[in-house]
Amino acid sequence: MTYRRAAIPALAGGLLLTALLWWAGASVNALHLAGTSEVLGGRAAAELQYWLTPWSYDPPDSVRFGAGVSGGIGDAAGTDGSRYLSLYATSMQIRFSAVFAVFMPGALLLVRRLPPVRGRVTAALLAVWAWGLVAGMLAAVLSAPWSIASRGHGSYRFLPQLASASSSGQQITVLAALVAATGTVLAARITTKGAGPLPLGQVPARAARLAATVGTAVVALSLLVLSYQPVAAAIQTVSLSGRLLSEPGDFLRQWLLLGGWSGPAGAPLGDWLLYRVADGLLLAVVWWALRKLPVLLTPATVPAMAAGAVCATVIGLLARQLLQMGLTGADSGMRWGLLQLTGGLGGGVPAALTWGLVAGLLTALTLRAAGGGAGTADATPPGDSLAPAPPATLPDPPATAPAPPTALPDRPAG
Prior knowledge:
With about 425 residues, the chain is an all-alpha fold. It contains 15 helices and no strands.
């Protein structure tokens, strides 16, 4: 797909994602109405407000309270209070601009290298959906310094506050990104209408399996080693010298850990193993996606493999969280309610971005080193390719030359 055809769906998806998040943030005021708590329930209304507040232009209580205290006495203090409110408005402008600015190039790359034609529609939808979550997380991180400064204590525990901002508002971003991904894929289907089916790439299965295993091992390092509670506790208590970098533990935890688990102490072994199935599901999704990416991408360039690996890690993370939600709901008998169960949905995206990039780069390098790059399709042995082999053609029959005329024997003399 050309850049011109891919730019239209990416633009439409970016505008749709930005508009949906803005509309969700503007809906916070509806939760403050008198009858909302009676209809939804006080607990559900408070949970929805927690989801939507990171995308609302209405300043939270911490900013509003600080501005009111500053503006209570004297004109100078009032000016300071208006500055805090102005900082918060600036942070929201940066956040919505960053959502569009981050989603647009990623969706452009994915739609161009993974066009939603026959055989690739589901993969393209999942990839763009995952990239929408990454765009929402990066937008929150980029706008966090202004949001933190608007609370009046920006220099206090800056990195922990930045870590908290990177994981805020992801629940509503999951839903908005899914709608935006659907719109992007539908628009891409329209722009590619009339285009013939694209052939799958020819990649040796052994090279693809080896590369997928290397990339999955990188993700497993975070999920199985760093996320183990003793190791995670050591990471969270890391401290460096300096005022702004005195407590980077929370920040490192957000960007390095894909989960958290401990031994089966105090719990039946069967229940502990059942929850570990969710971790296995994440690794299985990542391995399968990394194995199929070289075949689905057109072509499997290093940037496309890196972006695809990030999306695969995010999708695996969502699958793990959905399975854990089902297990938790079955154990608690849905006593907590659906909103409480989905509170952790969309978390871990910073770590998925970090380890997904590393996994994608190592997968691409391993694939090339193992002979799975472009131009190796001719050397693929029959029956050992991920893509179906082309139909064999019979050799042309040899051309038969007309037989020379038979010469008659000479007649004897006499």
